Amino acid sequence: MSNNNLSVISLVSIGEHPTSRRPRRAEQDARAIELGIKLVGDNLQTLHAGKLSDDPSQQTALRSYLGMGLSEIHLLEMSENADAVLVIAEYLKQQKIDIILTGVRAENGESSGMLPYLLAEQLGMAMVTSIAEILSIDEVNQQAEVLQALPRGQRRKLKIDLPFIASVDMAAAMPRQSAFGPAMRGQFEATQAATVTDQESSGWQVADAKKRPKRLKIIKAKTAADRFKAATAKASGGGGKVVHGVEESAQAILDLLVEEGLV
Amino acid sequence: MSSSEFLSQFLFTLISFAILLTLVGAVKRMLLWSQGQSSTIHWLGLLQIPRRYLVDLHHVVARDKYMSNTHVATAGGFVLSSILIILLYVFQLKLQILTWALLGSSLLMFVGSIFVMIRRRNPPPNLSLGKWQRLPKSLMVFSLSFFILTLPATGILPSDTGGWLLAVLLVAGIIWGIGEMFFGMTWGGPMKHAFAGALHLGLHRRQERFGNGQSTGLKAIDLSAKKLGVEKPIDFKWNQLLSFDACVECGRCENNCPAFAAGQPLNPKKLIQDMVIGMAGGDDAKFAGSPYPGIKVGTHKGGAIIPIVNVLVESDTLWSCTTCRACVDACPMMIEHVDAIVDMRRFETMEKGQTPGKGSEILENLSATDNPNGFDPSSRMNWAADQNLTVFGHDEKKQEVTEADVLLWIGDAAFDMRNQRTLRAIIKLLRAADVNFAVLGDAEFDSGDLARRLGDEATFQRLATSNISTMNKYQFKTIVTADPHAFHCIKNEYVEFGGNYNVMHHTGFFADLVTENKLLLDNSKELALTYHDPCYLGRYNGEYDAPRFLLESMGVKIKEMDRSKSTARCCGGGGGAPVTDIPGKQRIPDMRMADVVETKAEIVAVACPQCNLMLEGVVEPRPEVKDIAELMLDALIEGGIENTGEGVVVNMVGAQL
Q1: Of A17, A180, A182, the CB nearest to B456
Q2: How many CA atoms lie within 13 A of B515 on its CB side?
């Protein structure tokens, strides 16, 4: 695809490995970059809001994005308690951007997944969630065709007007390997961002999330073959159906509650 | 002017001219090598050339007795003849003794050339054809011409024998012979191996290899360099370029390469020849040996400043290598194939980010969790929950220690249920011998072997320096490990980063304990058993005896495989080959298991967790795979210490610490 006139920017965050909790390139953000590189190649811009550590070993997470072949990452320097949404929005308002790519949600911090929505609101752009691919871009009509990822491998083709914000799903193409050499040689171009303190979060209390209770899988199998089948068989869908009308919806909910023994 | 006078004058001109051209060719060749990157020039090595040639090189050649005798006659005859020819015809020293000597040396060379000719009649597939088929004829023509030429001078035949007819024939023969043997030496003929080979022996990048020495650790690179690894031929060190030119295309590497045998697209000989093509420029159409399996000869070309991968050499070729070092060990010219392959892999991984297969995932895991499979780093010691191990550390409440006789290096076997059995056996044996040992626990990281061989020098250096700084916090005399890869890394590759340790493989350590009677083994068992040498223990570290000693101490008569000790075939598990998983016609471990089956052994003893996994991965029915430590535990006579129930021993060890 040659989309030389297209201006695409990808927003990257510092991820966190689920078991070691070490900083790393966030999986969805990396997929967003992969998608962006495939779309516009070297013209992809990359933006990170935050502070860059002076210690090179603390830079590895951000640098691993550079290792994908980017020549630079634009850095909006802001303090820890600043509101990234406002900082980024402030910056993007001054640019002429066609497509903004983000992950669905951050791997640490608030991880609310709200950033793309709030940005879309601030910038007055359309927002499309969880895309797996950008299929085509019609620059004449200023429209793009994207593939949205739905559960269980389903995809939905959407047409969306430029400019837009898209959050990139894990279903998008795997990110390319990050190479050490380009990662070390890539540059950070830092600008001091407007200081916008996040007032809302200053009053919050933060507690560790509790694991959600998980339904036990009760297998009544008599033979090893049955147990094997139960362990390997995919949960078959098809139980769900779309219900219209208030009466029917309420009845369906009630039926489920009764079935589960809750009423 | 008689024909003999004409010959004498003509020879002066011809040989002087040939030597001049040879020198010009030599300079041109040296300019090719000098395109490479700078590297220490070991001038003193040049003085060692004769010794290295006669001892070190000949030691390798002599594994094939026929060829070594042939080479002694041919090469010896040629070198001697050349010196005499120059003295007689260029410096015109008309001494009768020299004439007789030349008669003898040319005869010796002629006899040698007959054997070369016989060998070349039905050449085995590892030999290159093409210009190499011409060589025995050239050797014969050269030696015969000078032999006949010298006959009249010795007085055996009257001068002017044969008249002008013979003179013309001799002139033709000498032009051919000198052309091949002198001119061809520096202008790319088959004799190039003698010229480049001699210099390569002297200026070798690993001087420590000579005189029964060892140098097997990969060399570190500066990570702040503008380019990491080798992209183009000129990115090799100059002495690596020289080494490629030394190749004599004997194909011993090809015969020993497990990837080639498995039908993966690698042939070490072709790879080295491709490097020569890259250095000098051209295409591979004239290559007359076995191709890379599955890749047609004549479809690739290269040049000194043209990227190598996917132009001259397919990336799959590089990633097929198991780094087993069988080619390096078999190479009479002491060429370092593995170094070159890893150099090119470094560029692929660190500059292009194109490690194939699961490589990229593994490297990412190593960055994030310090183990290749991405397990939770804090679960590293879970396997030993019931082992009551003493851990190095500073927390006295947890009974951690800062000092022990032995640091037991666990390795990534910690995460693998099969190899945990080996670890348990080792721990029981150590306790039975009353060894004071401790482990690093969660502070131990992967040794970096896999990362380094996948070309990720950056991750290797991070892991190595982390491990070194962890180990330097504690006092111990010896590191013992069951993993030859970790053994090799810590022993040979941590040195460049300031880690100097006394490292032992568990077989070496246990062999000492058995010798000192600290471990008593039942030697009455009769096991039909063979032993598989791990590459990183055997070829990399020369340890062939300790495992065999232990097996023999258990009363086992080892049914040796044909390919054993230094020619042992790799299990296919090294160098990240299981990770990159380049397809071939068959699997390397299957071939190795076929070797085992051939001996009619019921058990194959291994001494490496990787070999264990690869060989156990072969479908049954097949011989059982057991680590030597497991076999030892079966044969252990528990009498050295009273009541060696596990708990009691644990307490005893605990009490000592």
Answers
A1: A180
A2: 9
Burial class (CB in 10 A: 0-12, 13-18, 19+), A215: exposed
Task: Report how far residue A22's alpha carbon sits from residue B380's, in angstroms, rounded to the nearest whole number.
Answer: 16
Cβ-in-10-Å burial (0-12, 13-18, 19+) of B604 comes to buried
Domain-wise residue ranges, chain A: 8-202, 224-259
Burial A96-115 (b: 16+ CB within 10 A, else e): ebbbbbbbbbbbeeeeeeeb
Question: Which chain A residues touch B222 with a CB distance below 8 Å?
Answer: none
Nearest chain A CA: its distance from B312 CA (Å)? 22
**Tens digits of residue pLDDT in A121-171:** 999 999 999 999 999 999 889 999 999 999 878 899 999 999 999 999 999
DSSP annotation string for B399-462: T-BSB-SEEEE-GGGGG-HHHHHHHHHHHHHHHHTT--EEB-GGG----SHHHHHTT-HHHHHH
| B469-474 contacts, C-beta under 8 A, 24 or more apart | B470/B440, B470/B443, B470/B444, B470/B445, B471/B407, B471/B440, B471/B499, B471/B501, B472/B499, B473/B392, B473/B402, B474/B392, B474/B401, B474/B402, B474/B403, B474/B404, B474/B407, B474/B438
- Please write the tens of the pLDDT for every residue from B623-644: 999 999 999 999 999 865 444 4
Residue among A19, A20, A179 whose CB faces B349 most closely: A179
Across residues B519-541, what is the average pLDDT?
93
Question: What are phi and psi for residue B3, nearest 5 degrees?
Answer: -65, -35
Round to whole Å and give the CA distance between B595 and B601.
Answer: 10
For A8-202, CATH gives 3.40.50.620
Among chain A, residues having any CB pair with chain B shorter than 8 Å are 17, 19-20, 22, 24, 60, 67-69, 176-182, 184
Question: CB distance B353–A22 less than 8 Å?
Answer: no
The reply to whether residue B353 touches residue A19, judged by beta carbons under 8 angstroms, is: no
**Which H/E stretch holds residue B133?**
helix B131-154
**pLDDT score of B648 more than 60:** no
What does residue B480 show for φ and ψ, rounded to 5 degrees?
A: -120, 135
Q: Which of B354, B368, B459 sits opposite A20 (nearest CB)?
A: B368
- Determine the topology of domain B3-203 in CATH: Fumarate Reductase Cytochrome B subunit (1.20.950)
The closest alpha carbon to B175, from B15, B6, B9, B19, belongs to: B15
CA–CA distances in Å: residue B202 to residues A34, B23, B237: 50, 19, 15
Nearest Cα residue in chain A from B442? A20
- What pLDDT score was predicted for residue B74? 95
Q: Which residues have a Cβ under 8 Å from the Cβ of B638 and sit 6 or more positions away?
A: B432, B644
- What tens digit of pLDDT does each residue of B567-576 get? 999 999 999 9
Q: Tell me, what's the ipTM?
A: 0.87
Nearest to A24 among B353, B368, B370 (CB): B368
Distance from CA of B418 to the nearest CA of A (A): 22
Instruction: Please judge whether B350 and A178 are an interchain contact, meaning their C-beta atoms are less than 8 angstroms apart.
Output: no
Amino acid residing at B305:
I
Domain ranges of chain B: 3-203, 220-351, 361-649
| Nearest chain B alpha carbon to A27 | B364
Among positive and negative, which fits the CA dihedral B349, B354, B356, B358?
Answer: positive
Secondary-structure class of domain B220-351 per CATH? mainly alpha
Q: Are B521 and B632 in contact (CB under 8 A)?
A: yes
Tokens standing for residue B403:
């000092």
Which two tokens mark B507?
């077989």
pLDDT band at A239 (very low <50, low <70, confident <90, very high): low
Give contacts of B580 with chain A, Cβ < 8 Å.
none
Strand A72-77 and strand B437-438: pairing?
unpaired
Contact between B354 and A177 using a beta-carbon 8 Å cutoff? yes
